Amino acid sequence: MSVNADTARAVYDAFATGDLPNVLAAFDDKIDWQEPEGLPFENQVGPGAVAENVFGAVLSQIQDFRADVREFVDGGDIVCAIGTYHGTGASTGVELDAEFVHVLRFGPDGKITGFRTYTDTHLWRQSLGL
To answer: According to a count of CB atoms within 10 Å of the terminal CB, is the N or C end of the chain lower?
Structure first.
């Protein structure tokens, strides 16, 4: 695996243990974070915006949230993570069990410059009560 794939794996491992400072440290200052249409987690620019408006929102609205990665696809400057989101809607009690593909783009300095999520927004909306 490439250095970028190793970085991606380390980011998911850090997220799984709640180590958000190390997750955010892997992001470029101008990371372009893209979420699917139909979810309340809008596209963001910068680690601070991602932490507050994506991570903070998800972790407050989905209890016991986790993103389990089954596979990494190493494309050099682009790494894909394939897995499943799990958790329970905090206001609905509806289980979230939605597959995802994440596309991580890396800059020449090894920082993550772009992140895009592909997932089943219908399952998310049910869990969130939207």
So the answer is: N
